[in-house]
Amino acid sequence: MAETKLNPRDVFGEVLLEIGKTDERVMAISCDSGAGSGMNSFKDALPLQYLEVGISEQDAIGICAGLAESGRVPVVSAIAPFISMRCFEQIRNDVGYSNMNVKIIGSSSGLSHSNLGSTHQALEDIAILKTVPNMVIFNPGDGYEVEMSLRKAVACKGPVYIRMPRNAMEMPVDPEKRSFEIGKGESLLDTGDDVVILVTGTLSIDALEAGQRLAEKGYKVKVLNFTTVKPLDKKLIRNAYKNCRLMCTVEEHITTGGFGSSVLELLSDMPHHAPVHVLGIEAGSTQTGPYRELLDYYGLSADKLTETIETYIHNLA
Question: How would you classify the pairing of strands 228-230 and 136-138?
């Protein structure tokens, strides 16, 4: 894995400014979250392409729909639980059904704001927004994935939700060895097909470390990473499932309606019957504390993932 850690907000801000300078259609819309989202440099350099709406997410989505209708490419950002939940009706009706070219950025997603409590933790946003028609969902977990998600979002036509991480993460693979396409996954580890781990977002390093530890114990393990949650890489997932004895999905999201649920729906008509375990956070969880400690509490650290998956393997006998 690449040891370089990049701050997601810094990467987002730098790339957004670069894109904005080359395409005057691109506008940055803030819901009192310009600094927290990394938009300050954009605001200073391109003030005529920046709009501060304040703590008014519903208005922001309506404004963005209007801007998109007029040919602009609005990129609107706010803390993930607020931009995905407070204004869901506007997202569904004004952006989704109308297929508007609006890019929605949920900053500090998942457990990022772990010390602020459940009101500021976005653990249901994928489940909510994947029901919106025409919506593409990116769930980046490191600096490279943040950059590519933003570039692809602005380049593609239609609504996009980017589930932004807050904490700097290591990259599971050197960027020069990676290829990013909408709706495509990537292989992080492949020593065989007995155990397949599917991971999305911020837990790619933990899932990879768990896979490596299991491989060192003699298990044949495949670890696949998915930055795009909607649409899924159906072919890659189906092919991985055909010959496996056990499949586990891993996500920093509730286990209801998220990435794992989408995988289960995809595999429901396959004749192969290997067990599929969805590893995430139980709906309604409200624990507060340091980020890494919460991941461990919910069983999502490399140590806990290794322990849990090995238990599943033993139960196959």
Answer: antiparallel
Whether residue 159 contacts residue 95, with contact meaning beta carbons closer than 8 Å, is answered with yes
Residue 265: CB partners within 8 Å, gap ≥ 6?
none
27 and 159 in a single domain? The answer is yes
pLDDT for position 238? 97
pLDDT digits (tens, 9 = 90+) for 8-25: 999 999 999 999 999 999
Q: Strand 73-79 relative to strand 26-30: parallel, antiparallel, unpaired? A: parallel
Q: Report how far Cα 127 is from the mean position of its chain's Cα atoms.
A: 12
Domain annotation covers residue 262 = yes
pLDDT of residue 125: 97
pLDDT tens digits for 222-239?
999 999 999 999 999 999
Q: What is the CATH number of the domain that holds 150?
A: 3.40.50.970
Does residue 127 share a domain with residue 83? yes
pTM: 0.95
At 225, list the tokens: 């990473």
Q: What is the pLDDT of residue 253?
A: 97
pLDDT band per the 50, 70, 90 thresholds, residue 273: confident
Whether 62 and 95 have beta carbons less than 8 Å apart is answered as: no
Q: Which structural domain range is residue 84 located in?
A: 2-170
pLDDT of residue 265: 97
- 242: domain CATH number is 3.40.50.920
φ, ψ at 190 (rounded to 5°)? -150, 95
Is the domain of 138 the same as that of 29?
A: yes
In whole angstroms, what is the distance from residue 119 CA to residue 130 CA?
21
